[in-house]
Structures are given as C-alpha cells and as structure tokens.
Amino acid sequence: MIENRPWLTIFSHTMLILGIAVILFPLYVAFVAATLDKQAVYAAPMTLIPGPHLLENIHNIWVNGVGTNSAPFWRMLLNSFVMAFSITLGKITVSMLSAFAIVWFRFPLRNLFFWMIFITLMLPVEVRIFPTVEVIANLKMLDSYAGLTLPLMASATATFLFRQFFMTLPDELVEAARI
User: Fold this and answer.
1) Could you tell me which residues come within 8 angstroms of residue 72 by beta carbon, excluding any fewer than 6 positions away?
2) How far is 34 from 61, CA to CA, in rounded Å?
3) Vertex 9, ends 3 and 12: CA angle to 5°?
4) Tens digits of per-residue pLDDT, 17-43?
5) What percent of the chain has pLDDT over 70?
6) What is the pLDDT of residues 51-64, one digit of tens each?
7) What is the mean pLDDT of residues 48-77?
8) TM spans, by residue (predicted)?
9) Which of 176, 111, 125 lies closest to 154 in space, CA to CA?
10) Cα 38 from Cα 98, distance rounded (Å)
11) Cα dihedral 140→155→89→137 (10° resolution)
12) 10 vs 154, residue with greater confidence
C-alpha cells in the first residue's frame, strides 16, 4: 500500500534542491570568475555577481593562452583533436587486424600470441610510463605527435574486445563472405 506523506515529499525535494545547489555552485563561481578581470578575481572576497569581461577573457585565452608561456587555447584544442583522432584510428586498425588474425587464421602458437597480448592488461599504466618514455626518447620521438600517439595505440583492451566479437560470428557468415 502506498501512503501519501507530504512531509516526506517536501523533505526529499528540499534535499534534492540542496544537492543540486552544492553541485552547481562551483560551476557558477567558475562562470563568474570568467566574467571578471584579474584584480576582481584575486580580491579577498570575490564577488558572486558576473562582470562585463566575459567575451574579452574568452578572446584573450583563445588567442594568447592562460599564462605568459602558455599555448593558445585553439592550439591545445587542435592538439587534442589530432591526438584523439589518430589514437582512435590507429588503435581500431591495429586491434581489429590483430584480433581478426588471431580468430580466423590458423597458425601455430596463435593462442600464445593472444595471451601475450592479453597479459599486458595486467600491467598498470604506472608501471609502463618510464619504460615507454625511455623508448620514445631513444627513438628521438619526444615532442612529436608520433611519440604521443604510438604508445597509446598499443593497447590490449580493444584487441580483446574485437576478438570476443569475432568469436561470436558464425562460421556460416564467414563462409558466405568468402563466396
């Protein structure tokens, strides 16, 4: 039986509104800080009323960057796009080809190759950081897109997922594709 308890509804809504306020207040403070000049942001009690400098600040960050030695925001956004696109494309290509070979080609030691790939999932990123940087430095690929993207393409997660998908495909479908 469902009972109507108005005090419980009021309490629940009050707690939800309070939770939303706690979550949204830092976002509002960040927005207000984006509309103020530097002196107003660093003033002892920062005002919570938006200022008139929003478009000026956005243009300044977009063109000049945040600090004196910082890259402009458009450059950082372009770097992020190039990195995400190349890592995604490379990881899907390499992982799909390796999983396809492991599932559909019959060659000696194919399960060993799969487990050699799969065992790398047990190595956390923290263990792989220094050796990866050392290899990239020895190959003289520091400060380049290739030095950033190539190590991140070599991941066993996508190979494992593609292998599991290819194993679900029926043999009849592959035979029909060969014809």
Assistant:
1) 61, 62, 63, 64, 65
2) 10
3) 130
4) 999 999 999 999 999 999 999 888 888
5) 99
6) 999 999 999 999 88
7) 89
8) 7-31, 81-105, 112-130, 142-162
9) 125
10) 53
11) -10
12) 10
Q: How far is CA 114 from CA 57, 140, 159, in A?
A: 52, 30, 9
Residue 1 has pLDDT above 80, yes or no: no
The token pair at 7 is 């005090």
pTM of structure: 0.70
CA angle 28, 32, 34 (to 5 degrees): 115
DSSP 82-124: HHHHHHHHHHHHHHHHHHHHHHH---TTHHHHHHHHHGGGGS-
Residues composing the chain: 179
Q: Where are the alpha helices (DSSP H) in the chain?
A: 6-35, 38-42, 54-64, 73-104, 110-118, 125-138, 145-153, 156-168, 171-178
Question: Quick one: pLDDT at residue 2?
Answer: 66
The segment(s) of the chain belonging to CATH 1.10.3720.10 are 74-178
Q: What CATH class does 74-178 carry?
A: mainly alpha
Q: Which amino acid is at 172?
A: E
